[in-house]
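User: Some background: our group keeps a shared notebook of sequences we're curious about, and every so often someone picks one and asks for a predicted structure to add to the entry. Today it's my turn. The entry only has the sequence so far, pasted here. Could you supply the structure so I can complete it?
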Amino acid sequence: MVCGTTNSDQKQSPVDSTPPVTLQTMCGRVIVDYEEMIPAAADTELAAWITEAPAGASSSWNVKPTQQIPVVYTDHKTGEKKFVTAYWSLVPVWSNELKTKFPTFNARSETAADKPSFKAAVKHRRCAIPVSGFYEWTGPKSARVPHAIFGPEKLLTLAGLMSWWHEPGADDDHGWYLTATILTRNSAGVMQPLHDRMPVFLADEFVNEWIDPNISGDHALVQAVSAAAAPIAEDLFEYPVAPLRGDGPELIEAVTT
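Assistant: Of course. Here's the predicted structure to add to the notebook entry:
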């Protein structure tokens, strides 16, 4: 979302058989392997943004909401291409604290352009969220099974929205936090047996338009990007994994159910 800062470089992010369809909130857990993502970005429209891992970032196979998630955007004042990390849950500029009363780690593409928490971000604070993959769960609550989900390449780009939140009482040069959310839509392709929703995968042909802060976003743009995600969902692959505990590449090892 829009916030009137004077020096974006001084802002910072905060530190720290066919299975049954599930009807819970998603996308709520992602995989970020920088060693695989960065080389893969060279063959995409994100190549100019993704050249090295964000400062202080490390790979994780179990990123949860409110933790750090990678974000690609273009500075609206300087035009500088940015690859940084952000607090995963969008906090509107008008919030009094770095949390919300309702979950904001996902934003429904069908309504984001009209929702108070997201509409300013749709207009001028759009971003890409590059990940290696993500997880989704199937089965009854008593026996949930996580599935690791990946694209055909080592980089899977998601459409996101961002907001600079300013800590109340801080001066103009301090207390800035970058926060972000992942857009979702109705499931398609490989995702349909797993969940009724899926992330909006950002097609390469939409990357530059989506990230450009000088292009005023609206419902039509969101819907065009959302529609282009459906063919990408056809090329995903998934498999069950063990319950997610801790962190490390062993979390994405396949198991037999």
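Suggested note for the entry: Confidence is low (pLDDT under 50) at residues 1-24. The domain at 22-242 is CATH 3.90.1680.10 (hypothetical protein yedk fold).
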